[in-house]
User: Fold these one by one.
Assistant:
Number 1:
Amino acid sequence: MAKPFVNDRGFIKCPCRRCLNNASHQLEDLESHIFRNGFMFGYNQWIHHGEPATANAGTTVAGPSGGIHERDEMFDVLDDIISEDADEDAVGGPSSNDQYDDLFAALRSELYPGLLKLLKLAFPKIDLVESHYEAKKLMTKMGLGYSSIHVCKNDCALFWKENSLKDTCPVCSESRWKLQSGKRSGKNVPHKVLRYFPVGPRLKRLFATSKTAKLMRWHSTGKSKDNDVMRHPVDGKSWQEFDKRHPQFAGDVRNVRLGLAADGFNPFGNMSLSYSMWPVVLTTYNLPPWICMKAEYLMLSLLIPGPQSPVNDFPARSSLSGWSGQGYRACPTCNEDTPSMRVIEKTAYFGHRRFLATNHHWRSNLQFDGRTERKRPLRRFSTTDILEQLRRVKTGIPGKHPNYGGVKRKRGDDELNWRKKSIFYELPYWATIELKHNLDVMHIEKNVCDSLLGTLLADPHKSKDTDNARRDLAKLGIRHELHLFEDGNKLMKPAADYTFSEANRRKFCRFIRSVKFPDGFASNMSKKVAQNDSRLLGLKSHDCHVIMQRLLPVGCRSLVTKNIWSTIVEFCTFFKQLCASTVNVSDMVEAQKQLVLILCKLERIFPPAFFDIMIHLVLHLPEEAILGGPVHMRWMYPFERYLKRLKDYVRNAAKPEGSIAEGYVVDEALTFCSRYFDDVETRFNRPDRNDDGMHPTRQLSVFESQCKPLGKQSYVELDNNDRDKAEFYILNNSPELEPYLNEHKQELHVRLREGCLNINEVYRTEFAGWFFEKIYAMHRMQAPEVTTELLSLSSKTNMVVSSYPACIVNVVLFRCKWFKCDSKHMVTENNITSIDINGEAYKDDQFILASQAKQVFYVADPSRGPNWCVVQHVKHRSIWDITDDGLSDIDLLQHNSSSNFTLFVDLGNL
């Protein structure tokens, strides 16, 4: 009877007294289980083996005393874990679940996992685990543990595998243990401990868990059908080329694609600036884009201990890739052809005319650097070229011991900027991957923003327009009007047109201070402005992201010349296009061409010292987007937020790494188990921050809408005209009233002569009264179709209504102020749309439903006067332009594509 009900893997639930329908086995193992353990009590209706369930047949398991109680969600957790292990056992031999006996025993107790000793003292009759150690053993069996690996104090080697029993480092011979007065203390205490969180069991759990197994196969079904559209790394060229080179791997839908991120951080906040540790975090690119970068799906794989660990930002990329990010060849993409020049006390990455066509007239223009550009455009280094370069790199000794790996080695000319051959090349497929390491757009955008703002505002701490920068101009013999000169005993510095005057600095800072964003969109910018309105202070990465893409193009329009403003706007528009959630390949190809022109224009505006490596790296971002897909799945924002979570785990300042490891494992266990608790609020089903509550089930759709008001309540008295307009709009847009609307229109055609010009006006003014009389008459006749809701809808509204400054919709009705959109009242320039808010239109038609509105906010336009504002569109972070694939709980809407922004470079009279 049960044979037809095995699952697609050939397994079926086991009703023996030990498994209790919680574990699944193959049929031949099922018979031996029942013979050895006996058949479970209380399983009279075989609902898991083909017998239909009756109304009173629930899912039950045997209790500790043989009774029956409702099935615990934790049994579903173990069922998924055991079934995955059973798959492996089926390949190697007969399955055995003896290792899970204590887990089932713990689940059958009245309380699990309990509060250990405290609860055991308070409730001595309850069966609890004996200690924290016992609880950790149970979690380890579920794949939720970690390993502690001792490390040499000089980072030379790990005391692992063949070195696990050694007391001294095999490289530098330093002791493994901390010594006191030259002797080992009573208890062996290692110098450093690396925490390793095994990746294999965690990936197995994602496939074994019924809640995530389907999502782990999304990459094989969610690929964009349009070759020009990229919404996920699966749409990138690098992923597709990898599939072509490894067809057997790509053919298995269960193949796993991982992304690795590493960033040093200080676990103590501002308490200690010298302590740094290095978490190594993995993200699973099998998952769809709306959950792939969420903290619940990121995996901590390594925790490299402090107090001195590798650095962050662009140098961290150098540590992982082996290519140094300093010197004349700092660009990892340009390689040995990096455009660079030596200026006073620094290296400038200047000379982007090289990327122009060989016949471009700018190549012969002497106003850039006083020379003609004759170098050929950048050559492309293939994976074969890179391997050939790495063959010339000498193998170094690992570690920081002053006599071994800590010796600074001078690179030979044939080694270029390679410091080492990355250990990733030991992976068999690594050499053929086109995009091995991502340039982090978050850090690049922040550094570019800091350079622009610092120079425009003449910030003494961040400006690139220093005295040495002016001396560079004199040395190159260009822009004589900006050279330093002596006036008596004073060294004078002429004002540059790329810096704001003192009055304009105050004007720009007041503009930043006045901006108000929608809830949750950005931080409070007014707190970032200095008290004297002279500069911006304490800008975080996301602040720079918002300023670059939303505020800087608007705020500087009237403060610099048109040539400088248009170039800055083009630069900012590129970042806005790059950071779109949906990226078009054709847009990135075009952006690559336009960026060369933009960088050349910037070279005509700013001094060479302005061009640090971050400005140059922008040139390669479009190509990386084509290879790797949208930026939002490759930048550091999700990982930076994740580091904040890790920092919150620190409870013992003396042992920060141990605190993080223990806190992570506990949080991981709670997160995993909470996927199964549908009737309990967890991080997977909790309401959003701006959730408007449960929508009541109503007969009429108009009553299903509701809102959560924000701000102070006030009362507004409507006049008869406004009330009548609002009532008619609601009635006219209620789909359930369509029969009554049509009936009233037919009566009007009969009553009024044919062709009456005012029939629509009569319809608008008379329908509400006609509808009320119609419904009230039917109500007196006790017509069954007249419900309480229908009767309420036909009644008049109050003249006094509540008003709030803001609300969280879903709300019934918006009253809008419409603006004229003709050429006199609306101007669009460089993707910036400005509207005259005094040009009001449609004063007699001000109401719309919430479903008909799109969220925007307005920023004052200082260049056009007090009555002009710039329209800024808002994209909700949970909205994606992906066809619904049975995932009804995700908001899907086409919005925020790179094609929404046109990147056009105005060459002007250059």
Note: The chain has 26 helices and 32 strands.
Number 2:
Amino acid sequence: MAQQTLIYSFVARGTVILVDFTDFKGNFTSIAAQCLQKLPSSNNKVIYNCDGHTFNYLVENGFTYCVVAVDSAGREIPMAFLDRVKEDFNRRYGGGKAATAQANSLNKEFGSKLKEHMQYCMDHPDEISKLAKVNAQVSEVKGVLIENIDKVLEREGKIDILVEKTNNLRSEAARYRTQGGQIRRKMWFQNMKIKLIVLAIIIALILIIILSVCGGFNCGK
């Protein structure tokens, strides 16, 4: 299975995000949305760097295509992904539904397509690299506006990107619930064992006291 180098993507009209997708959980979604507000309105490709991640944007004809990637993804794969998404999105919605769609209203229709494109680009890095060279995207990427997010968002200090796999969180929660049940059962058995031992000791003490008072087993004589 390919390393998950692409972690979040969306398509927006202006500053309205129409569809997005991620398998992860973290603050990268809000940071990506904040950067969207700062993008130039003209057609452009922009990359923002932050804490080992890149926020890649393709702005064209009023629509913005974004993907958040880890640094190890390089430049070609995120940009190739954006081009693929742009072509697919325009083929489906060009001049139609996307022009009036509400925020997140295309998630059901196009969210799975974002996932498919992300997975394809991650699974076929060599093919993507070759296509990038054939299409002369390498030279284009070198001319992309690259800035640091701290500067763009006018933040003081370093922004830390938090990324957690949602599936892992769910499995961890399930594991903790299972472990919690096992621990509770174990504690119950331990408590019962202690109670039985204490009860046995009390009974033994009572017998010892009775036998000592009666002089052995001749109490009734």
Note: The beta strands are 6-13, 16-22, 24-26, 44-50, 53-60, 63-70, 145-148, 163-165.
Number 3:
Amino acid sequence: MEALTFPRYSPDDIINYLRSHVLTGAEARNLVKGDVFGSPKLEVLHMIYMRILQKVYGIRLEHFYMMPVNVDIMYPQIFEGFLPVCNLYIHMERLLPVCRINDFQIADVLNPKTKRTARFLSGILNFVNFREFRREVYLELQLNYKSAMEKHQQLETANREAALKLEKLNTVPVEHQAEVKQLTDNIRELEQLLRQDYRRKQTALQEVISQKKSDIAESTRKLNELKVTMATLKEEQEQLKSKIVESPEELKNYKELMKETVKKLKKSKQEVIEKYEGYRDLVEVLPSCQLEVQLYQKKMERQGANVERLASVLAEVRNLEDQLESAQIELKKGKTDEMSLKRLVTAKHEKLSTAEIRIKKKREDVEQYKQTVFEYCNRVQEKRGAVYDKVTAIHKEIQQTRFKIQQLNENAEKEEMKAKEIYLNLKAGLEKRHDSLIKTAKSYAASREDKMAELKKGLLRV
């Protein structure tokens, strides 16, 4: 009991704590250290224990003087003086194991010792202090739990009401059921028609988009070609400017050629502008198709991820090929090692043959040793037979003793039967005696009442 889970308080600390937290009024003022320690007073110690039990378990004072109902006692008057001490011990025996004290006895109530009392009070005060500290937390939790339960009940009622409303809203009345079925069928048909129309339009749009994309690509290609031709013509123009001859005829011819090329360029430019305007109108229709393009982009990304995976797989294949080459090299080395090992094996076989010759010699020695052991076993078997005879004799003696024990048991049972008969006779005599005692007690009570009545009459006369 030395390794306890509570500290040992000094007598002064115990007295101060009892005055401030357990006792009240005159009890706290009149409490002295000598009442509990040194030569403790039983009344004060019992009062302290009762107050602690009242504080912890809420036991009222009259409960200490009440007879237990679950016990049938013949003469309760005998126990009237001992009842408070007995009830106090019962309640303290229930409290102290909670305080990690398991050696409380009735002697600690009737004849308390100073050291044990100090240890008991230290454990009790430590538990009371801990109880007060945790009680606040418990009360807060209780309040939170009550508020949470109230909210839970409110929410449950609201949930039930909402469920009832939902049931009312979900349940279609009998009058409108046919109409609702007709409406649902119409909705399904319309959905199917819309889906078909959407698919048809989607396919048409995809075809138009693909065609327009090809046209745009063609036009961009032509535009790029024209830009290239323009750039080349400008270069030629600059070159020709430097080579211009003063003859007017050549100049006129060159100008006419240039005018024709300019007209051709203007026509091609006008065609490109017209096509560009037509494509711009078509591009305005494209936002609806961008989603599909995004889907294709995602597919392309997935394809890219697959390509990366393929690349990683190829890298692994290369690594495996390298490993295979290294394994082949190792295999060659292994073959050379195998040849060397074969040579070693032949040498080992030679050693094995020499070892077998030695083993044969050892076996011969072992067989000789076995023969000697068998001879020794035969001797032991002979000794075992002698021991077995002794064991059988002891077994017979045991059976005889068992028979004697059975006889003794039968005699004991007979004596027990006689004792039971004596007990029953004594019980019957005691019951008769109890009846006579009850009668005398009743007659004594009646005579006492008569005497009390006579005394009261005498007092009234006086």
Note: Residues 314 and 320 are 10 Å apart (CA to CA).
